């Protein structure tokens, strides 16, 4: 029966090659073969366009651009100024520290992109986002929403802030990547592009990679993974990911958990769920407030000291 095992391995390898080359779109148990993925475009408006040369020229982002899955364009804000000093900022009305990015250059930059007016914009066609410490927090849920949008324009804030009329006239939302302040929106733009692009069908070698990870999908009844093997992963459903181990099985006196060494897929899934609950309770207890737990989940959390009314 060795030839059957060999043939099975060849078929699995061929399937993975198809997946990694963007020829399969998979949603649940449905697989569609064909290379016509929807192409997405990012336009980034910034005073430092060269900043993005490094982040976008490596790994998944580079492959996604090369394959035509995504197009990323940067636009120098100073090219849309109208004075010889190429001025993009000015002092704030009412006084105060710092400088404020002017509305006119940003308005002209967005207009040059042929984006529909804010009042006529369809959310899945195009969206304009201001990157600001005052914005809503960027989450995996928001990344998933942007991943079905054809065109995303990111306006990188700088200095003390951006003239609020930019927000009122042009932007659909403000986004912040965390509760801290950066020198500008360029780092935030790179983070958002990376988080969104990896969710596009065909961007990752294995389509399950973006499903079974921190903040990933709810667990499903599927018993096999995309490569046809029994599934030992557990859908996070808003939890943090479980711990991971690789060879060697022992390192500096520390051995891998017994559950991972036994080869029992059900046991591995149960261990991973348990550890995901534990890690979330330890590192991000706030996430537990929005998750529906099974009775088994509650028993596991109680073992680790969690109470249902506990507020962190």
Which spans of ≥5 residues are poorly predicted at pLDDT below 50?
Answer: 14-36
Per CATH, the architecture of the largest domain is: 3-Layer(aba) Sandwich
What is the fold named in CATH at topology level of the largest domain?
Alpha/beta knot
Give the C-level CATH assignment of the largest domain. Answer: Alpha Beta
CATH superfamily of the largest domain: SPOUT methyltransferase, trefoil knot domain
Structural Rg: 23 Å
What is the typical, i.e. mean, pLDDT?
84
Q: Percent of residues in helical segments?
A: 25-40%
Describe the structure.
The protein is of the alpha/beta class and about 300 residues long. The protein folds into two domains: about 160 residues, Alpha/beta knot (3-Layer(aba) Sandwich), CATH 3.40.1280.10; about 90 residues, tRNA(m1g37)methyltransferase, domain 2 (Trp Operon Repressor, Chain A), CATH 1.10.1270.20. It is about 30% helix and about 15% strand. It contains nine helices and twelve strands. Strands 4-3-8-7-10 form a five-stranded parallel beta sheet, with helices on both faces. Strands 5-6-9 form a three-stranded mixed beta sheet. About 5% of the residues have low confidence.
